[in-house]
Amino acid sequence: MEELAKEVSSLSAEEGEETSKQNGQIWCLKRIGKDSGWLQLFENTEVTIGRGLNVTHQILSVSCPLMISRNHCMFKQREHGQWTVTDNESLNGVWVNGTRISPRKPHVLQQGDLVRFGVPLDGNPVEFEYVLLHSSLDKIKDFLSKTAGAEVKALTSRPKKSKRKFGTDETEPNISKAKLYRVSNTDKSHGLPCPPATLPDQAGPSEPSGRFTQCSDSSQHLTSLKRYNENLKALKERMGATQKRAAELEGQEASSLEQRQEMEALQEQMKLLRGELNSQQELARQRMEILERTVCEEERRLAMERIQQKEDGLKKQLEEALKEHRKVIEELKHEREGFQEVLQAKDKELKVTKEEKERARAQKEEVVSQMTEVLENELQCIICSELFIEAVTLSCAHSFCQHCIADWRRRRDECPICRQPIVSQARSLVLDNCIDRMVENLSTVMRERRTALISQRKGERSA
Fold first, then answer.
1. Secondary structure (DSSP) of 328-354
2. Residues forming a β-bridge with 103
3. DSSP state of 105
4. Inter-CA distances, 48 with 55, 218, 280, 303, 359, Å
5. Which of 103, 194, 302, 425 is the most buried (most CB within 10 A)?
6. CB under 8 Å to 425, separation ≥6 — which residues?
7. Per the record, which residues fall in region Disordered (predicted)?
8. Between vectors from CA 182 to CA 178 and to CA 186, what angle results, nearest 5°?
9. CB of 42 within 8 A of CB of 146?
10. Domain ranges of the chain
11. Is 74 helix (H, G, I), strand (E, B) or coil?
12. Helix, strand, or coil (residue 435)
């Protein structure tokens, strides 16, 4: 009994030392808006973050699986204790306090800095946003996430448990479950058959991630976990009964040979139960890790299926949009042909109108030339060879400019054309009005010349 008490006290001491080591100050990334998934930053090592399997912390985006790169970034502590973050040329970048850092260049961090992985989508907040903290492990250990490296190492290289003989340093392999029931003299009604200890990873070569049957594996793992829990409860009850019986025997003052033998049997049974409990806990933990990994793979597969469905929907929408675009192009082509026909008809009309205008202008020019010819031949004064200015008609019916005939009659009083005596003369308003109307259609040079001539004769008359 004293040896049992010493062993229990040594185990308690070891647990106390381990707990005291874990109560120190650690660095971590606290996830904003979440009470889980906090990332611990291990000192004296490079902490990598990404969606790949060979990173320290694996984070997977639910809304967009490609938001996080395989090896997204790396955290490293310098000699003086200051942490830096380096962007490993990720697709959506690493943002510190709202500013994206340069790839492949370490960025110095301060306690309380906001570190963001990726960008927001559709107006939603960023999925992975953390704040750098330095706090006690006891306060934050319940929120920390498991590291991917530790999980893989635990599954691939798990050391085998060995049993130590009571009071000696020799070890022996795990005793079979049947021996437990042979040695124990207590009630066996709580004992349940343990599930096979073979892990799914050891059964044979693994199938591709998209081909294994997730539903059957998950249900099998859940059934195994339930059976492990029942066995653990039964073992705990038996350990409690054994400890109670050992306490009763210890309380008795006189111990007979049978009691000593029973005490030794109880000690052996306690040792076997403790080993079996550790073994069952180890198997349950392995099953839990496998179940978590299976759930993670299933979530990843479902996310990829959703992405594929979205891509198929976008392809269909793109095809429909292309069809509509082709229809619009055909309609525009037909309308263009109609517009070209209308433009050709308008061009023909304009051509005809232009020809008609050319003919009208030619006719007008011909009329003007004829009028000019008439003016020059019929309405021109024979004395000054200009168009009549204040036309005067003599008694012989010949017409002259008033200025010209007055100047002529000072020398001779006879008609310059027919040589008949001038009996009378009269103003011809009809000729003046006709000449004025015709002069308006003459060229500018002729009109200016006539105006200057009229002004000159009025000046001479006033003088």
1. HHHHHHHHHHHHHHHHHHHHHHHHHHH
2. 87
3. S
4. 5, 29, 33, 23, 92
5. 425
6. 392, 393, 394, 395, 405
7. 186-220
8. 115
9. no
10. 25-139, 382-462
11. strand
12. helix
Q: Are strands 47-50 and 57-58 parallel, antiparallel or unpaired?
A: parallel
Give the separation between CA 300 and CA 318, rounded to whole angstroms: 26
d(CA 442, CA 439): 5
CATH architecture, range 382-462: 2-Layer Sandwich (3.30)
Structure-block tokens of residue 331: 């309609």
> What residue type is 156 in one-letter code?
T
β-bridge pairing 128-136 and 171-172: unpaired
What the block records as the tokens of 457 is 């004769």
Q: How many Cα atoms sit within 13 Å of 180 on the Cβ side?
A: 22
The two tokens of residue 436 are 């004025």
Instruction: Lay out the sheet containing 47-50: strands in order across.
Output: 57-58, 47-50, 73-77, 83-87, 107-108
Calculate ∠ Cα 226-230-236, nearest 5°. 140
Task: Please say whether the beta carbons of 60 and 51 come within 8 A.
Answer: yes
Residue type, 76: K
DSSP 8-state secondary structure symbol assigned to residue 395: T
Inter-residue contact 381 to 400 (CB < 8 Å) = yes
* Full pLDDT tens readout for the chain, 463 residues: 444 344 444 444 444 444 444 457 899 999 998 888 899 999 888 999 999 989 999 999 888 888 999 999 999 999 888 999 999 999 999 999 999 999 999 999 999 999 999 998 888 889 999 999 998 888 888 888 765 444 434 434 444 444 444 444 444 444 333 333 333 343 333 334 444 434 334 334 444 444 444 555 556 656 766 776 777 777 777 777 777 777 777 666 445 777 777 777 887 878 887 877 787 777 777 878 888 888 888 888 899 999 999 999 999 999 999 999 999 999 999 999 989 999 999 999 999 999 999 998 888 888 877 777 776 677 888 888 888 888 999 989 899 999 899 889 888 889 998 999 988 989 988 888 888 888 887 778 888 888 898 888 888 877 6
Q: pTM of the entire structure?
A: 0.33
What is the distance between the alpha carbons of residues 140 and 23, in angstroms, rounded to a whole number?
10
Residue 59: phi and psi, rounded to 5, are -125, 135
What CATH code would you report for 25-139?
Answer: 2.60.200.20
